[in-house]
Amino acid sequence: MKQTPLALRMRPVHIEEIIGQTHLVGEGKILNRMVLAERLASMILFGPPGTGKTSMAIALAKSLDIPVKKLNAVADKKKDMEIVVEEAKMMGQVVLVLDEVHRLDKAKQDFLLPHLESNLVTLIGCTTSNPYHSINPAIRSRCHLFELHPLTANDIKTAVKRAKEDNEQGFGTEDITITEEALDHFANSANGDIRSALNGLELAVSSTPSNPENQIVINLDTAEVCMQKKSFSHDKGGDAHYDVLSAFQKSIRGSDVDAALHYLARLIEAGDLESISRRMIVTAYEDIGLANPQAGPRALAAVEAAERLGFPEARIPLAVTIVELCLSPKSNTAYKALDSALSDIHNGKSGDVPAHLKDSHYQGAKTLGRGLDYQYPHNYESSWVNQQYLPDSIKYKNYYNPKNSGKFEQAIKQVYEKIQNDKNKKV
């Protein structure tokens, strides 16, 4: 029996075997270019768990036949890094694949820096953390930063099929049938984590007895048990899924906490964090907007926390923010105002920029009358002065119509109305 986990056995050994991440390894993309040019640079690969960071790092090194050493910034000591450097001196160059690179302490970092500078050691750091927040600038400035995206369901299917058919590292020598329903479940329930899908497949193969024809048949029930997730009642790409997404957003807009949480639960079971995140962020700005301007940044923070945590813990920040979005005051005045302005542009209702607002930072601008009568608002006590900003043809146009939704918009409504009144007094 093979003791090495399937996910490790199936790691790519060449850039062409990497599944997904075509924005980095596709034809003409940056990592593909590095390999073709045989000039691998130090880099940080960051992204959610299971997106293939370590696998990609090892595949890049093997594509160029460069010796590769794998360490962990937490578990391995400075002495282990010293050994890697000595081996690099003997072999000319080594690629150091360093997991949990964001946990690199100062002593290890100071030791590595000069060897990165000389390119004796090419560092490929792997982390689930945002490198701009978690990695020391001294290391970060010496590395390219590349973000890996969650794999799609089709990517996961490709990985599962490859493992099933591979004669050397996978199950190609065994008679295995995976039903379409089971394959879909492996792909969708993995939530972009290729390791999770391959672990589930391996458990399914090893725990399913052969039938009388000496064939292992993996059906949906087996896939559900081995992935520890029930198959959900709708397909992520089907019409029913978009119906649930629509109901989710409209429930938030309608301030129905219970309905929004219900649809959130259905989307979580479908494993569609990407669509949940998108709907939360757009709702925070589209439906809540100026009534609670902090809803947008907080929704984004919750999405980032969910992406970093992954399921099942991701449900916690999502739930907190959904309750807040539901019960927040609502206002769509800002984007409606912009839509009104866009409508005018599309219908040809525009005009020339007033001369006093035109760019005057070039020789000859004054001769053309550019910016001559511009009044700088900060020179006035209230930081406001009555001057025309819109083109002549629409100078009396009003796009923004504030509401009394939430304290913030009530406050800016007062400011807006005062400015409008002052304008009218002097017209």
From TrEMBL:
**Which ranges carry the AAA+ ATPase domain?**
39-151
Nucleotidyltransferase: is it a keyword of this entry?
Answer: no
Keywords from the named record: ATP-binding, Nucleotide-binding
| SMART domains xref list | AAA
Q: InterPro entries given for it?
A: AAA+_ATPase (IPR003593), AAA_assoc_2 (IPR032423), AAA_ATPase_RarA/MGS1/WRNIP1 (IPR051314), ATPase_AAA_core (IPR003959), DNA_pol3_clamp-load_cplx_C (IPR008921), MgsA_C (IPR021886), P-loop_NTPase (IPR027417)
Q: Name one Pfam family in it.
A: MgsA_C
Lineage, top-rank taxon, reads Bacteria
Which family does the record assign?
Answer: Belongs to the AAA ATPase family. RarA/MGS1/WRNIP1 subfamily.
**Protein name (Swiss-Prot/TrEMBL):** ATPase
Q: Which organism is it from?
A: Virgibacillus natechei
